[in-house]
Structures are given as C-alpha cells and as structure tokens.
Amino acid sequence: MSQIKEIKHWIDGSLYAQKAERQGEVFNPATGEITAHVDFATEKVVDHAVSVATESFKTWRHSSLTKRTQVLFAFRELMNANKSKIAELITSEHGKVLSDALGEVVRGLEVVEFACGIPHLMKGGFSEEVSTGVDVYSIRQPLGPVAIISPFNFPAMVPMWFFPIALAAGNTVIVKPSEKDPSATMFMAQLLKEAGLPDGVFNVLHGDKVAVDGLLQHPGIKSISFVGSTPIAQYVYETGTKHGKRVQALGGAKNHMIVLPDADLDLAADSAVNAGFGSAGERCMAISALVAVEPVADELVKKIAERMSKIVVGDGTKGCDMGPLVTKVHRDKVASYIDAGEAEGGKVVVDGRTLKIEGKGFFLGPTLIDNVTAEMKIYKEEIFGPVLSVIRAKSYDEALNLVNSHLYGNGTAIFTNDGGAARRFQNEVEVGMVGINVPIPVPMAYYSFGGWKKSLFGDTHAHGMEGVHFFTRGKVVTSRWLDPSHGGVNLGFPTNN
Ligand code: NAD
Q1: CA–CA distance, 213 with 232 (Å, rounded to integer)
Q2: Could you tell me if the CB of 253 is within 6 A of ligand 1?
Q3: Are the C-beta atoms of residues 243 and 219 closer than 8 Å to each other?
Q4: I want to staple 230 with a disulfide (CB 3.0 to 4.6 A). Which of 1, 85, 128, 251 is the partner?
C-alpha cells in the first residue's frame, strides 16, 4: 500500500503548519483505499485565513490590471504544462477516467482565458456634459475577500468557474474544496504562486460544515460562490444572505433529454450514453431522464442498451470508459435508487448492480431503467450516478410538461430535425441551459453557467459577464471641474474677469 498523504490548508502562500484538531479521509475510489488525511478547519483557522485575505486585499486591489492579467496568463501556461498531472490527481481522488479529468481542466482554463480579458470587461461608462461642466462615469471595484465552496464532482473546473474572475477583478480568495478530493485545488494554489500571485491573495481551507459555517458567518467575507447539492445550496444562500453577503449558490439537477419522433436516433442514442454515463453520471449536467416521444421508445431503448454493453468500467487510469463512484456510501445510495425504481415498477433493461470487479473499489455498472413515471422516486430525486431512466411520452406537450414541472431546472436537451420544434422548445422550457441536438449544453466561459428553480439560489450565474458583475460592485461618479478660466489660481489661462 502506498504512503498516506497529509493535506494541509494553504494560507498566505504556504502550507499551514499547525496540527489540525480534526481530519477527514480521502480515498482512491478505484481501490477503496485511504490515500490521504485532510485537515479540517476550525473557526479559529477560518478567522486566521480571513485576516490574511483581508490584509492581502489592501495591496492586491491596487495592483494594476496589467499585473493581474500577467499572473493569469502565466497561470494558464503553467496549467497547460501540468494538465496531465492535475488530471492524474483528479482521477486518483474522484475516480473519473483520465480523459474526463483532462476535459474538466481544459473547460476550467477557458474561464482563465476569459478572465485575462478583464481590462476590457471592467471598463465603465462615461457621459460628458450631463449638465454644463458636469460629467458622470461608472467604475466597478472589487468586493474584498471572497469565498468559493465547491463540490466533489469537478474538483478543478468548478473552483475555476470563479477564482480567475475574482482574482482578475482585484479580490482575494478563499477556496473551500470538497473534502473528498482536495488535491487539485492545492496544486492550483502552488501554480498560482509560481505564476507570481502574491502570498495571501489565494488561500485554501479544507473541511466540512464547520469551515463552511465559519465562512458564511464571518463579517470579513464579502461574497460566497457555492456549488453543491440543493439542500446545502439553499442553506448556504439563506445563511450567507442573512449575514449580509452576496451569494450565488448552484444546486442539484435532474436533466431531461427529449427525443422527438423525427430525431436521428443513432445520434440520440450516442448522446444519451455519453451524457448519461460520462464521469459515471456524477455531473450536474448529466442526462438522467430520457423522455422518448412515441413511437420511438422501443427502438431508442434497444440502441442505447446495445451501446451500453460496450462500456468498459474500471480504474480510471487504465484506459476504460467509466470509473468508480466517489465513495462507498454514494455507490450504495445510487444502487438503492435502482432497487427503488424496480420496486416501483420500472423495467431494469441494463442492470449495473450485477457488475463484478475484483477489489474494494466503489464500482457500479451503467444502468438503464425503462417505463419510469413522474411519480417514482428515481424520477423525482437527483441520483447523481450512472442511472438513466426512460419516460415514455405521447406528445411534445407531455414531454415539455415533464421538464417544466420538475423541481430542478439546470440543463436540458431536445433531439429533433425540426428547427421550428426546437425553437419552440428553447422558448417554452423552464431551464437555464438548453441543448439542441447537444446533450450537455455547458456554456462557453464568455456566457454564464447556471440553472433555474431549485438548481440555483441567487440571481447570478457563474462566469461570463454575470461573473464579472458578481465579483465587482458598481460606483457612479458625478464630477464638476471648473474650467481654468473660472478665475482661481493663475495657471496661465485667459480668465473671464
Ligand atoms: P455537497 O452539497 O454534499 O457538498 C458541496 C460542498 O458543501 C462541499 O464543499 C461540502 O464540504 C460542503 N458541505 C457538505 N455538507 C455541508 C453542510 N451540511 N453544511 C455546509 N457545507 C456542507 O455536494 P457534493 O456531493 O460535493 O456534489 C454533488 C452535488 O453538487 C450534486 O447535487 C450536483 O448536482 C451538484 N452540482 C451542481 C452543479 C451546478 O452547476 N448546479 C455543478 C456541480 C455539482
């Protein structure tokens, strides 16, 4: 067995030396073995990190736009040079296959690239002569120390949705990564330092509810960017706003893919398999409910099942298609949803529970359940695993109604060859991100990422211009400068008197 690592907080540009009162365990999900102990922050440690971030803000906010973008350009180069290493770290703690891990690093880097444009993105407006001799202009300024609390499923990309823009705008940052896979954030902290970011501007605190509560209640923290499950997102939003903070809290999902009768069924089947089982379904944009508008259901289910038989499940470092789930507890919870679906009358077409892999890894095979209805638990709740439910609908209206009646509204997709039907869907659907013949419509960094309904608390989505707005606040200046001819100190201009 390899040596167990110790993962410390990252405060003021170095590892926090003091011994932790509490720690958590980090597993390699493919082997089931503990690979690290991670320190959990107490209120006192949170307080220390916030005071460091507060002190660092005094100078970082006055660093020039050029300096801030230079750091981000250098960070981008370092991330590119090290992306295989980061992918390996992600796979070793999350379990997703290396290509998926690499994919999240690349998507996160798009936000770094967007943030490199901050000199343009933060430009204000100017109105000359709003009254005689009076001008008005607007500026945007950083907030101060900001906190980012991230989930386990994208340990590199989700923090990168926020911190590049926060730093570029002149804020200082504390990231509280998931305690299940904290190493990617630690690696990025070191690269930011190497890129020239001054100590104390980017800090990492590990932990659980104690650390999160410490950040939510601390008066020194000006905003909270949270991504995770809906109950915690709601709690974070309510607690953070009660303590006077700006909060964006992205929650859970149940993403529907509608397949209309005129769709290309091979494209739809390929897409359903990729979007349903990529990263073992542990993606907030994973397709979890496939709505087949009759008469295509039988053929579609057959095509999907055929493709699923080819999915190779195993250790994510060994060139397979799908890795394990993140923890044993989560694997067992996902398997219990399959039991519930079967008990409620769903037809298990492909059964992931039968998968056998040697060792103690947290594996569960891809599962397809047909004849799922809107009343079933597996339809109503987020499963967050490799389980795809098929719901059979008689019409477009019935399919649309399913999506719009659901609690969650993160992503959705429609598959059709009819542009008019697709256009109507994009207009009528009550979901934040919509794909047309695209199963996982994750917006590019210069657009914003976010859902509707119980998938988002707060009104600001992640990255894009909404990210720039979230991490800055506006100020409008109305100024009157008297003309030199007014007769004050003689500067050599001709005077009126
Ligand atoms: P989670 O809610 O369990 O944890 C998220 C963060 O909150 C972690 O940092 C965790 O330490 C912290 N946390 C956990 N329990 C807490 C508590 N009681 N009080 C305060 N903080 C607490 O989520 P997860 O299991 O890490 O991630 C999976 C979830 O994240 C899924 O529901 C998924 O849909 C969601 N997610 C959403 C998006 C999105 O963009 N909407 C993106 C990725 C993941």
Answers
A1: 11
A2: yes
A3: yes
A4: 251
At which of 385, 407, 436 does a domain end? 436
Structure tokens at 492: 């050599």
Q: Which domain holds residue 53?
A: 5-251+455-477
Q: Give the containing element (helix H, strand E) for 151.
A: none
Specify whether 417 is located in the same domain as 464. Answer: no
Q: What is the pLDDT of residue 355?
A: 97
CATH number at residue 127: 3.40.605.10
Is residue 460 within 8 A of residue 248, CB to CB? The reply is: yes
Helix (H) or strand (E) holding 226: strand 223-227
Query: How do 5-7 and 33-40 pair as beta strands?
Result: parallel
State if residue 451 touches ligand 1 by the CB under 6 angstroms criterion.
yes
Number of structural domains, the chain? 2
**Ligand 1 center–CA 302 separation, angstroms:** 34
CATH number at residue 427: 3.40.309.10
Of 246 and 485, the one with more pLDDT: 246
Identify whether 485 is part of a domain. Answer: no
Enumerate long-range contacts of 419-426, CB under 8 Å, 24 or more apart: 421/260, 421/262, 421/396, 425/258, 425/396, 425/400
pLDDT of 488 > 80? The answer is no
What average pLDDT does range 359-369 have in this prediction? 97
What confidence score (pLDDT) does residue 367 get?
98
Give the C-alpha separation, 77 to 71, whole Å: 10
Q: Closest Cα to atom 30, ligand 1: which residue?
A: 228
Residues in the chain: 497
Q: What mean pLDDT, rounded, does the chain reach?
A: 97
| pLDDT band for position 310 (cuts 50, 70, 90) | very high
Q: Residue 267 carries which side chain, given as an amino acid letter?
A: L
Whether the CB of 237 sits within 6 Å of ligand 1: no
At position 456, the amino acid (one-letter code) is: L
